[in-house]
Fold this sequence. Notes:
Elements: H1 34-40, E1 44-47, E2 58-60, E3 70-73, H2 86-91, E4 96-99, H3 101-108, E5 120-123, H4 127-142, E6 145-150, H5 155-166, E7 172-174, H6 184-190, E8 198-202, H7 210-218, E9 222-225, H8 233-236, H9 239-246, H10 248-252, E10 258-262, E11 277-281, E12 287-292, E13 296-301, E14 304-309, H11 315-330, E15 337-338, E16 349-353, E17 357-362, H12 368-385, E18 390-395, H13 404-418, E19 421-425, E20 439-443, H14 446-456, E21 462-466, H15 474-481
Parallel strand pairs: 2-3, 3-4, 4-5, 6-8, 6-9, 7-8, 9-10, 10-11, 14-15, 17-21, 18-19, 18-21, 19-20
Antiparallel strand pairs: 1-5, 12-13, 13-14, 16-17
Amino acid sequence: MWPWRARRCESFENRPKPSRCTVTLREQMKRWDPQRLAHVAHAQLLHAPPQAISGPDRVTIDSRDAGPGTLFVGLPGEHVHGGEFAAAALEAGAWGILTSPEYAAAATVGYTAGPAGPAVILSAADPLVALQSLATAWRRELGAQVIGVTGSTGKTSTKEMLLTVLSPHRLTVASKANFNTEIGLPLQILAAPAGTEVLVLEMAMRGSGQIAELARIAEPDIGVIVNIGPVHLEMLGSIEAIAAAKAELIAALPAGGTVVIPAGEALLQPHLRADLRTLRFGDGGEVRLLQADESRVEIYLKDRVVLFEVDFTAPHLRTDLLAAAAAAYAVGVTPGGNLEFTVGAGHGGHQQLAGGITLIDGAYNANPMSMRATLDELVATAASVQATRRVAVLGDMLELGPDELAYHEQVGLIADDSADILITVGPMAATMAGVFHGEHHHAADAEAAATLLPSILRPGDVVLVKGSLGVGLKVVCEKLTAGAPA
């Protein structure tokens, strides 16, 4: 019933192969018996088998995934409490359950051993805090170097690049997809196997105090702030408040740790600490771009020059690579060589469609910074493939506060220089049309845009689709890619 779960991952036997951090705990947490697990989770042990048993194989908050060897954690949700499924997890043969007292007690009453034998029943007043405490304890036992990655945009691509550049040198695990919240992050820590040397964790936030909470759980040694931009202004109110919220990662680092920040970012200057090593990336920084072409990127890295072979040309991805190279240097790795990096769905990946049409899929999210970056990419891609026309499908950017219309108008000005045809989606995006002088169409919502766009596209076009997640432009990309070559 829950969207988060820890599952089996790719093997670590092939050292250079990146892990997506969905590894079972079979040989790791097995040595944590019920008593120790209860202790580190600050939970009460209500029931345990009379004979000594080892710990669980894995942790899940999805009751459908609760089978033998699984510790099911029942969390309170918006509409239903996961503890309601604790008894079902036991019946499915779960190793044990951890949930709120009332649900744990109810599961204990009349409990009979399931197919896997007697189970462990744990109770915690706040099962989410217990899950987080369990993750912190495991992070400490791992002894890995932990890199926390945050930023207004580009944190996912920076995390993925870090995984790729570190994996040939260290046993590296990185959080997957959007497991970057107070629920997803501890699950990813718990999924890291013993022997992990570097743990790369993406950290998301929508308000003050949230990065601090994630850092408390993960205890990072290195903090990467990719950039500061006007995101979540509706909650935070100002760009200075956004910088302060991101800088909670700096405050959480231990003395002697390393912070990686953009060169010249004045908003972070008040939050820097004398007891940390600061690495700046970008023009004027210790890590900066020397030269680049369609397949090679040369970077000055503190005191040396490193060369990457890449398959991307987008300027914002090159900037993310600078941040990743700096973080790799911070853990003692000199990166370089072939960078096999694939942009995830919704994050700006390219796909070839019928008729020689190129799709740039940025439907996962949007803010003024990422809009500018992907519109620049639209121009560069169109030039690279000698496109017939540049088509931009731009949706509302959400949570920008009282100046939201002004931000949309600014994006419209950028689109006026970047696109031949503009399709706006949503009421705020419609304001872009007032400053756009090319061909313009408006769609009330994503479904309408998905219906409209195929009639506009022609062979050889490059089309960018980008908007905030809540606009739902994913359906536009899905309709375009239906039947496209794999």
